[in-house]
Amino acid sequence: MTPGKSTADITSDGYHKHKEDAKLMIDAGLEAYRFSISWSRILPYGRGTVNPKALEYYKSVIHEIFEKGIKIHVSLHHLDLPQILQDEYGGWLDRRIVDDLKEFADLCFREFGDKVSRWTTIVEPNVYGSAGYDSGIFAPGRCSHPFGLINCRAGNSITEPYIAVHNMLIAHAEVVKLYRMKYQGKQDGKIGLNFYSFWGYPFSNTSADVEAVQRVFDFQFGWILNPLVFGDYPETMKKICGPKLPNFTASQKKLLKGSFDFISLNHYTSAFVRDNSIILQISPRDFFSDMAAIVTASRNDTSNSTFVPTHPQVDPVGLRYLLEYLKENYGDFPIYVEENGYCEAANMSALDDHARIDALRGYIGATLEAIRNGVNIKGYFIWSFIDVFEYLGGYQSSCGLYHVDFNDELRPRTPKLSAHWYYNFLKNNSEALFSMERTEDLQNLLHSSL
User: Exposed, middle or buried by CB within 10 Å (0-12, 13-18, 19+), for 432?
Assistant: First the structure.
């Protein structure tokens, strides 16, 4: 339940204001823009009948952005599974969803692919699996006692996270195969998968905590990346989970391995990891127990609660460490940072968002340093361009470069200080703004733009 029982029925009203927003993208100097296409909006029955108004809307959005010379990055699936598929066969818990996602993807490739540069199949499958099917705080809100963070009506936290993600990975690989065989040659786009990331520091310098960090990385990142790069799950997961971790067939391993042109990640914070391997003596266990570690936002937090980064700590060097870890452990493939940013309480005083500028300066600088260290980073996207309805924070959390007044039915957009900073950063194409402190001269410079 979001704060105030708010909904995303209208949110920032991009349905009616996408042409205005495309103009703002030019004003802000954007080179690329990323958004999701809603499966539920395009195919309200999950398959078959197409919603013509939805098709018309997305064609208009893509046309407006494309005609302005901005590269388009599209995510195909980010939590919004058509409810009818959840009701019919349990959504991601059933293998039938593979064909249904392929049908949706095929439609999108056919209708929009001539103008889309990059396709991301599924966003954050690792969080989708753990938060949707273990803790229950994400859709479809499934969990089982005593593991869930909410009182779920149904679910099995012990097995369902692994089943759901297993099907997501197979569906991803099938969609990539479809795109490569049918569309990529003539459309010349690229396709990949996204995962949620955070950097982990050992809670102490003990070998147990150091090993726990790697175990967390295997469960959080390797769960998704190992099948794509090596064709199978990490050995750590197979050893701890045993038979409840589904097996890939030989043909599925072949299909999965190399099923990406790029990997993208969402990154907001770092965390501290404390060994909890004693829990492996207990059975049954959920996904978080299998990880055998306690993840906390700070060393001052000695609780055993599940890590939910609703108030992430800004740690730019953690992003650099992560990017370098990916290259060292998985190879020199292209990487996009598809989400990174800074959120704060929503209010008009947030127009002077110095904290966001500091965070962005740090994270962009860390990304640049990773590039200098040889990481093959192809792009960086700020979350978010304008204020939107946030999945966990509703309208109480403001993440955009542009403020949206949700109390005004016209949903006016107002550039924050960070929008001016980002414009100048892109325009100057230099590191000059990295060295600027929070001074009146900086405010005068930034307010002179846009």
Answer: exposed
Q: What is the rounded distance in angstroms from the CA atom of residue 83 to the CA atom of residue 140? A: 9
DSSP result, 134-181:
TS--STT----TTT-SS--SS--TTTHHHHHHHHHHHHHHHHHHHHHH
324 is catalytic: no
Residue 392: how many other CB atoms lie within 10 Å: 15
CA atoms within 13 A on the CB side of 249: 5
Distance from CA of residue 198 to its chain's centroid? 11
Using CA atoms, how far apart are residues 75 and 172, in angstroms rounded to an integer? 12
**Which residue in 178, 192, 155, 165 sits closest to 104, CA to CA?**
178
Q: What is the DSSP letter of 370?
A: H
Write down the catalytic residue from 160, 174, 338, 339: 339
Tell me which H or E stretch contains 419: helix 417-428
Total number of residues shown for the chain: 450
Confirm whether 437 is a catalytic residue: no
The SS3 of residue 233 is coil
For residues 414 and 406, the answer to whether their CB atoms sit within 8 Å is: no
Q: What is the pLDDT of residue 300?
A: 80
335 φ, ψ to 5°?
Answer: -125, 135
Candidates 124, 160, 174, 390; catalytic one:
124
Which residues partner with 344 through β-bridges?
A: 398
Per DSSP bridges, beta strands 344-345 and 397-398 are antiparallel
Rg of the chain taking only CA atoms, in angstroms: 21
Can you read off the two tokens belonging to residue 131? 């938060």
Which helix H or strand E contains 412, and what residues bound it? none
Residue 110 structure tokens: 């056919």
For the chain of 450 residues, list the mean pLDDT of each consecutive stretch of 10.
79 96 96 97 97 98 97 97 98 98 98 98 98 96 95 96 98 98 98 98 97 98 98 98 98 98 97 97 97 91 66 92 98 97 80 94 96 97 95 89 95 96 85 48 40
Q: Are 116 and 74 in contact (CB under 8 A)?
A: yes
